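Standup notes
- DV: blocked on the single-chain target, sequence here:
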Amino acid sequence: MVRSLWTGAAGMIGQQANIDTISNNLANVNTSGYKKVRADFEDLIYQTVRIAGTPATEDTVTPVGVQMGHGVKQAASQRIFTQGSLQATDNVSDLAIAGEGFFRIQLYDGTYAYTRDGAFKIDSDGRLVTSNGYWVLPDIIMPENFLPQSVNVTKQGAVSVKVPMDGREEEVGVGQIELYRFPNPVGLTALGENLFKVSEASGEPIPGTPGRDGMGTTLHKFLEMSNVSIVSEMVGLIVAQRAYEFNSRTIQTSDNMLGTATGLKR
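- DV (later): unblocked, structure below
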C-alpha cells in the first residue's frame, strides 16, 4: 500500500518533467536554429519477491517470478537534430545550413561554441558576428567602403562583396565559411543563446567545407527555423497531462484504502 503512494509520486514527478520539456519546446517554436528536446524515461529498480525458476516441488520450478516495481525516472533529455524548415529573409547577413553541420563561434573567453542559428550581423568593424556579438569563425571581415547589399555567399561557403573602385564596382573575396559536425551531436551541451559546447559524449568537432565530405550547404539570405511541430507537442502535452492525473488518482486510491484499513477498529 505504501509502495503505491511512492510509485504514484514518482510518476507525477516524471510527467512534470515531461511537461516542462514540452513547454520549453513550445516556447522556442519561433527560435531560429532551435532543435526540440524529447524527455526519455526508464523504470526504477524492482523488488524481487520470488525469483523465476525457484523449485516449487521436487520435480517442478516456478515458471514466473514476482517483482514489484517502484515507478519511473527521467533517463535523458535527448535533442532531436532533424532539419528545420527554411525561410527566405532577404537579409544579406542571414545564413542557413541545409544538411549536416554547425557554425563555429568564438565566445568572449576565447573558447568555442557551435550553433545552427545563422541570424548573423555585421558589426562596426565589418566582422560577421552573432546577435550577441560573438565572432563567427573563421573570421569574415568586410573591406572598407563595401556595398552592404552586395554581400554574396555561395552554397560552398565562399563570401564575396563588391567595393567601389575607379568609378566602378569590383567583386572581392573576403573569406570562407567552415562547418563542423560531430560523431554524436546529441551529446553536445546546450549553453543557451542557441549555442552548444563540446562534451566528452559529443566527440571532437570535424571541420569541413560546405557541400563536401558529408557537410550540408550554406543558403544565403535564408534562416533555418525551429523543428518543433506544434501539433505533435500539443498531443504530447495532452498525454502527459492525463498521465499526471492517472498517477495522482493512484495516490488518492491508496489513501482511501489506507483510510479504510485504519477505520476497521473503532
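- Follow-up: The chain has a mean pLDDT of 91.
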